[in-house]
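task queued by scheduler; priority normal; single chain, no ligands, no partner chains; default sampling; output format set to structure tokens
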Amino acid sequence: MDETRGFVLRQTGESTDPTVVCESCGEVIRDYRLAWVMWRDVLGEAVTKPTVLCKKNGCNSQLRYIEFASMELGDYLINLCRNAGMKSDEDFRAALEFANLGDQI
């Protein structure tokens, strides 16, 4: 995988920003509704690396990914947060408030 695609940290000015980049075309995903997370469901594999693909350019519809398991990016991110310990509305609200602090600078 290209190290500048998928779930990456991008340096913009003096800020380091978590970013999602399509692993097929390199499009920065700015709308979670326009992306899928896909993975090859291999029997017996305990850990699988997800592949992030955009809908905007049809990357998620490419033939090579037809048999991959998948979920929308929004669902993936919510599950990721829950699995990392963010269980309550209060946890999500606090994280969102912290993330919004950057918009106020």
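post-processing summary
- The first helix runs from residue 73 to 83.
- The beta strands are 6-12, 15-21, 35-39, 51-54, 69-72.
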